[in-house]
Task: inverse folding
């Protein structure tokens, strides 16, 4: 059985209580903390920058999984690393020289991820997969939490898994958008090993219980 990692997305937490929320999700037993960075250009929404990552870094040891939904992410990569990010994931649609950005992240000793919007073909990452640590499949159009999972993405996850199996190194398959207890198993059976979950976890009353429910549902 694959070891499935759970990455709550703080996009859906109560930002007025960010410190308490981070501590609570940490104690609830999450594996990673997913930080959605949005610039109001690549996606219509605006969220947080390196300064907030720096604050989060001071109160948790959990790996910080920073998903950059920004134009020209290479401008910001070093600032996010300095702030304490462990994984930095960039969109292929936002960077004409994605491999250079991946090298920049890895050159700083951090894990590099690449991600695709639902409308972007897996072919756009085929040749760079041997250089990444994480392939993130977006299963909603990025920008907001709480959107429904796009059903045709199951097939994309399966195809991504097949592509990863041909690569001669560990590449995590992360899935982000619309994941709930009700579909987590199907997402994992399709090939995912990192589940990003925003509203499902932060919208629940008991984070620990919700994370346990997710782990039980995927058969861990
Ligand atoms: C969407 C973000 C997601 C989002 C997921 O642009 O990348 O990480 O927070 O939220 P849910 O789980 O509510 O779809
Ligand atoms: Zn995300």
Result:
């Amino acid at each position: 059985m694959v070891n499935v990692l759970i990455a709550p997305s703080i996009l859906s937490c109560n930002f007025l209580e960010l410190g308490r929320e981070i501590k609570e999700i940490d104690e609830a037993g999450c594996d990673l903390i997913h930080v959605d960075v949005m610039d109001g250009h690549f996606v219509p929404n605006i969220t947080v920058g390196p300064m907030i990552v720096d604050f989060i870094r001071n109160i948790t040891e959990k790996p910080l999984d920073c998903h950059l939904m920004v134009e020209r992410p290479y401008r910001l990569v070093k600032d996010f690393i300095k702030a304490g990010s462990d994984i930095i994931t960039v969109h292929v649609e936002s960077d004409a020289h994605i491999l250079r950005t991946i090298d920049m992240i890895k050159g700083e000793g951090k894990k590099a991820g690449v991600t695709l919007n639902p409308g972007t073909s897996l072919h756009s990452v085929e040749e760079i997969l041997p250089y990444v640590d994480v392939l993130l499949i977006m299963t909603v159009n990025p920008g907001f939490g709480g959107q429904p999972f796009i059903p045709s993405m199951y097939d994309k996850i399966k195809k991504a898994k097949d592509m990863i199996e041909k690569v001669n190194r560990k590449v995590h398959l992360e899935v982000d958008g619309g994941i709930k207890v009700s579909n987590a198993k199907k997402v994992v059976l399709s090939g995912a090993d990192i589940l990003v979950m925003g509203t499902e976890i932060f919208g629940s009353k008991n984070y620990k219980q919700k994370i346990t429910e997710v782990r039980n549902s995927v058969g861990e």
About this structure: Residues 9, 34, 36, 67, 176, 196 surround zinc ion (ligand 2) (CB under 6 Å). The chain is about 35% helix and 20% strand. The longest helix spans residues 153-165. The mean pLDDT is 97.
